[in-house]
Amino acid sequence: MNNHVHLIWQARDGHILQKIQQFFLKYTAQQIKFDLLVNKNSLLDDYKINADDRKYNFWERRSLGIELFTTKACQQKPGYIHNNPVKGGLCKYPAQYHYSSARFYHSGKDEFDMLTY
Predict the structure, then answer these.
(1) Nearest-CA neighbor of 56 among 29, 24, 19, 28?
(2) Which end of the chain is more exposed for a tag (fewer CB within 10 A), N or C?
């Protein structure tokens, strides 16, 4: 999606969910910032904020995380995520959206080299 991301992930033993999310958000924000700095992209100014602890903000402060406790929820969420770009008008079919795992579920080919069933 052009303004948000959906992920389904599982923490390995010994890792804390909140820390994983914190590290993910920090790492991806840094990568976005570095890319915009290197490419001298004027979009960086859109993310400037007036805060004591940072100059830019790329993620919402309280991003929504939902734990999937039931089999029903685990089966429902991939369909919702895969249909999100279709509902957003970015493609006609879920597998057409490049940044979606729908293509993996459709063809079995993992273009990102990180997906599992």
Answers:
(1) 29
(2) C
The three-state secondary structure class of 56 is strand
Contacts for 83 with CB less than 8 Å, ≥ 6 apart? 94
C-alpha angle 101/23/42, rounded to 5°? 80
Per-residue model confidence (pLDDT) at position 74: 87
pLDDT value of position 27: 94
Number of alpha carbons in the 13 Å side-chain half-sphere of residue 84: 19
The proportion of the chain whose per-residue pLDDT surpasses 90, expressed as a percent, equals 43
Residues 6+ apart with CB under 8 A from 47: 32, 33, 36, 56, 57, 58
Name the amino acid, one letter, at 5: V
Tokens 């997906």, located at residue: 115
Spatial contact of 59 and 49, defined as CB atoms under 8 Å apart: no
